[in-house]
Amino acid sequence: MSTLKYLERIIQTCRQAIIKHLKSLITLLIEYLKDKYNQKFRLACLKCFKLLLFHGWPRICSHSLNMLMCCVHVASESYTDGDTKVYNETRDLVLALKLLCNGSLDKHLESLKSFNNKGVQNMVTFVFEKKT
Questions:
Q1: What is the pLDDT of residues 89-123, one digit of tens each?
Q2: Are 25 and 62 a contacting pair, CB within 8 Å?
Q3: C or N: which end of the chain has fewer Cβ atoms within 10 Å?
Q4: Which burial class, exposed, middle or buried, applies to 122 when counting CB atoms under 10 A from its CB (0-12, 13-18, 19+)?
Protein backbone atom coordinates (compact mmCIF):
# COMPACT_ATOMS: atom_id res chain seq x y z
CA MET A 1 0.00 0.00 0.00
CA SER A 2 2.85 2.39 0.75
CA THR A 3 3.98 2.06 -2.89
CA LEU A 4 0.67 3.53 -3.99
CA LYS A 5 0.95 6.37 -1.48
CA TYR A 6 4.30 7.29 -3.02
CA LEU A 7 2.88 6.96 -6.51
CA GLU A 8 -0.01 9.23 -5.51
CA ARG A 9 2.46 11.87 -4.28
CA ILE A 10 4.56 11.58 -7.43
CA ILE A 11 1.52 12.10 -9.66
CA GLN A 12 0.39 15.12 -7.62
CA THR A 13 3.89 16.61 -7.65
CA CYS A 14 4.57 16.09 -11.35
CA ARG A 15 1.13 17.26 -12.47
CA GLN A 16 1.02 17.37 -16.28
CA ALA A 17 4.68 16.35 -16.53
CA ILE A 18 3.39 12.87 -15.63
CA ILE A 19 2.08 12.58 -19.20
CA LYS A 20 5.37 11.17 -20.47
CA HIS A 21 5.00 8.27 -18.02
CA LEU A 22 1.30 7.50 -18.59
CA LYS A 23 1.77 4.23 -20.44
CA SER A 24 4.04 2.78 -17.75
CA LEU A 25 1.87 3.99 -14.89
CA ILE A 26 -1.34 2.73 -16.44
CA THR A 27 0.24 -0.67 -17.10
CA LEU A 28 1.43 -0.81 -13.49
CA LEU A 29 -1.95 0.16 -12.06
CA ILE A 30 -3.77 -2.35 -14.26
CA GLU A 31 -1.51 -5.09 -12.89
CA TYR A 32 -2.10 -3.92 -9.33
CA LEU A 33 -5.87 -3.93 -9.83
CA LYS A 34 -5.76 -7.66 -10.58
CA ASP A 35 -5.35 -8.29 -6.83
CA LYS A 36 -9.01 -8.88 -6.09
CA TYR A 37 -8.40 -9.96 -2.50
CA ASN A 38 -7.24 -6.61 -1.19
CA GLN A 39 -9.96 -3.95 -1.17
CA LYS A 40 -7.76 -1.16 0.23
CA PHE A 41 -5.13 -1.79 -2.43
CA ARG A 42 -7.74 -1.67 -5.20
CA LEU A 43 -9.23 1.54 -3.83
CA ALA A 44 -5.76 3.12 -3.71
CA CYS A 45 -5.17 2.06 -7.34
CA LEU A 46 -8.48 3.60 -8.40
CA LYS A 47 -7.52 6.82 -6.62
CA CYS A 48 -4.24 6.90 -8.55
CA PHE A 49 -6.15 6.31 -11.79
CA LYS A 50 -8.37 9.30 -10.99
CA LEU A 51 -5.28 11.44 -10.36
CA LEU A 52 -3.92 10.34 -13.74
CA LEU A 53 -7.19 11.42 -15.34
CA PHE A 54 -6.92 14.80 -13.68
CA HIS A 55 -3.26 15.47 -14.48
CA GLY A 56 -2.82 13.43 -17.65
CA TRP A 57 -6.04 14.43 -19.40
CA PRO A 58 -4.39 15.71 -22.61
CA ARG A 59 -3.16 12.19 -23.47
CA ILE A 60 -5.34 9.89 -21.37
CA CYS A 61 -7.77 9.07 -24.20
CA SER A 62 -5.08 7.19 -26.09
CA HIS A 63 -5.01 4.77 -23.13
CA SER A 64 -8.73 4.81 -22.42
CA LEU A 65 -9.57 1.43 -23.94
CA ASN A 66 -7.02 -0.38 -21.76
CA MET A 67 -8.35 1.44 -18.72
CA LEU A 68 -11.94 0.62 -19.67
CA MET A 69 -11.21 -3.10 -20.08
CA CYS A 70 -9.49 -3.14 -16.70
CA CYS A 71 -12.48 -1.38 -15.13
CA VAL A 72 -14.86 -3.90 -16.71
CA HIS A 73 -12.87 -6.72 -15.13
CA VAL A 74 -12.80 -4.99 -11.72
CA ALA A 75 -16.50 -4.06 -11.87
CA SER A 76 -17.43 -7.61 -12.78
CA GLU A 77 -15.43 -9.12 -9.92
CA SER A 78 -16.39 -6.56 -7.30
CA TYR A 79 -20.10 -6.77 -8.16
CA THR A 80 -20.02 -10.56 -7.98
CA ASP A 81 -18.09 -10.44 -4.67
CA GLY A 82 -20.43 -7.80 -3.19
CA ASP A 83 -17.65 -5.22 -2.79
CA THR A 84 -19.71 -2.05 -3.24
CA LYS A 85 -16.89 0.41 -2.44
CA VAL A 86 -14.64 -0.88 -5.20
CA TYR A 87 -17.59 -1.27 -7.57
CA ASN A 88 -18.80 2.31 -7.03
CA GLU A 89 -15.29 3.77 -7.39
CA THR A 90 -14.77 1.78 -10.58
CA ARG A 91 -18.11 2.94 -11.96
CA ASP A 92 -17.24 6.57 -11.18
CA LEU A 93 -13.85 6.18 -12.87
CA VAL A 94 -15.53 4.86 -16.04
CA LEU A 95 -17.94 7.80 -15.98
CA ALA A 96 -15.05 10.28 -15.66
CA LEU A 97 -13.15 8.53 -18.44
CA LYS A 98 -16.19 8.62 -20.72
CA LEU A 99 -16.74 12.31 -20.10
CA LEU A 100 -13.08 13.13 -20.62
CA CYS A 101 -12.83 11.23 -23.90
CA ASN A 102 -15.85 12.97 -25.50
CA GLY A 103 -17.63 9.98 -26.97
CA SER A 104 -14.65 7.94 -28.17
CA LEU A 105 -15.59 5.15 -25.74
CA ASP A 106 -19.31 5.17 -26.47
CA LYS A 107 -19.32 2.32 -29.00
CA HIS A 108 -17.23 0.16 -26.65
CA LEU A 109 -19.51 0.94 -23.73
CA GLU A 110 -22.55 0.28 -25.89
CA SER A 111 -21.25 -3.18 -26.74
CA LEU A 112 -20.86 -3.92 -23.01
CA LYS A 113 -24.62 -3.64 -22.49
CA SER A 114 -24.89 -7.27 -23.59
CA PHE A 115 -22.00 -8.40 -21.36
CA ASN A 116 -22.98 -11.41 -19.27
CA ASN A 117 -22.54 -9.72 -15.89
CA LYS A 118 -25.19 -7.67 -14.12
CA GLY A 119 -22.57 -5.42 -12.50
CA VAL A 120 -21.07 -4.44 -15.85
CA GLN A 121 -24.52 -3.89 -17.36
CA ASN A 122 -25.51 -1.68 -14.40
CA MET A 123 -22.25 0.27 -14.71
CA VAL A 124 -22.84 0.94 -18.42
CA THR A 125 -26.44 2.00 -17.78
CA PHE A 126 -25.26 4.36 -15.01
CA VAL A 127 -22.58 5.89 -17.25
CA PHE A 128 -25.02 6.57 -20.10
CA GLU A 129 -27.74 7.95 -17.81
CA LYS A 130 -25.47 10.31 -15.87
CA LYS A 131 -25.47 13.82 -17.37
CA THR A 132 -22.59 15.39 -15.42
A1: 999 999 999 999 998 999 999 999 999 999 999 99
A2: no
A3: C
A4: middle
Other CB atoms within 10 Å distance of the CB of residue 25: 19
Write down the H helix ranges in 1-132. Answer: 2-14, 22-33, 39-55, 57-60, 64-81, 84-100, 106-111, 118-129
Which among 58, 52, 69, 71 is positioned nearest to 102, based on CA atoms?
58
CA–CA gap between residue 93 and residue 95 (Å, rounded): 5
| 58 neighbors 101 (Cβ within 8 angstroms) | no
Torsion of CA 1, 90, 62, 102, to 10 degrees: -140
Task: Decide: helix, strand or coil at residue 35.
Answer: coil
**How many other CB atoms are there within 10 angstroms of residue 23's CB atom?**
13
Provide Rg for the chain, Cα atoms.
Answer: 14
